[in-house]
Specification:
This protein is α/β, with parallel strands linked by helices. 25% of the residues lie in helices and 23% in strands. The structure holds hypoxanthine (HPA).
Length: 252
């Protein structure tokens, strides 16, 4: 194994590079599941070894249902990632989850289909049934909450992330059903990523960036433009480096 990576960040829509990484090196890794979404950019931040991977590729060319989640997680595991912070752009369903909110979900519901969701998906492997009752790592979540407080970054603690198949957005009826199910946030990339990280034994948490109100949830309904979504993601993403610096100072 290479030198351990203290924190691996998987960037989602609107976060394709981590400009703050010092002395970054690009690792083009290959895995038995194929190539990850792009190079792993490994460098230093706050005196820690940090890696960055753009989930959709660095030019946002891989749709959520076509991401090779197994290759991404396997590549991070092979590179020695000790923990993963996933950044996910989402739609907000419940009142506290308006555009530009940063949220740290503590539960998820998986509505995806047809994605390879396990490393046990081939013959001859020992099938394991990992405990996934709490899908996000409690220690990493607590450190993120403390970091946000110290950095003065507003972060909603908790919420249920519902993962849909995409790439289309949901219908209003689908969001109404998700609300009944208990979902606060809706995204397309949280699964199977979180489950694969659990199978690989890597502590994982998701930092959600609310890009828009989910279908039918806008208290002031208007047509959402792509520009508005990107502006919201960019506005909230501007808070991420301060949060990361605090987090890195708290990792063991
Ligand atoms: N639905 C699903 N995924 C999303 C959304 C949404 O409204 N916004 C950003 N990612």
């Amino acid at each position: 194994m290479r030198d351990a990576i203290d924190l691996a960040i998987i960037g989602g829509t609107g976060l394709y590079r981590l400009a703050e990484l010092e002395s970054p090196q690009a690792l083009s890794l290959d895995t038995r599941y194929g190539a990850p979404s792009g190079p792993l950019r490994v460098g230093e931040l706050g005196g820690r070894r940090v890696a960055f991977l753009a989930r959709h590729g660095e030019s946002h060319s891989v749709a959520p249902h076509r991401i090779n989640y197994r290759a991404n997680i396997r590549a991070l595991a092979d590179a020695g990632a000790r923990r993963i912070l996933a950044v996910n752009a989402v739609g907000g369903i419940t009142e506290a989850m308006g555009p530009r909110v940063l949220a740290l979900p503590d539960q998820l519901i998986d509505y995806t289909y047809g994605r390879i969701a396990s490393f046990c998906d081939e013959e001859g492997v020992d099938v394991v049934h990992v405990d996934f009752g709490d899908p996000y790592d409690a220690t990493l979540r607590q450190k993120l909450i403390a970091s946000a407080r110290a950095a003065g970054v507003a972060l909603v603690d908790g919420g249920v992330y519902g993962c849909t198949q995409g790439p289309r957005l949901e219908t209003s009826a689908e969001i109404t059903r998700m609300l009944r199910d208990g979902c606060d946030l809706v995204g397309m990339t949280g699964m199977p990523e979180a489950a694969l990280a659990r199978e690989a034994g890597i502590p994982y948490a998701s930092l959600c960036i609310v890009a828009n109100w989910a279908a039918g949830c806008d208290p002031d309904p208007h047509e959402i433009t792509m520009q508005e979504v990107l502006d919201n993601v960019a506005g909230a993403t501007a808070e991420v480096p301060a949060l990361l610096r605090e987090l890195l100072s708290r990792l063991d």
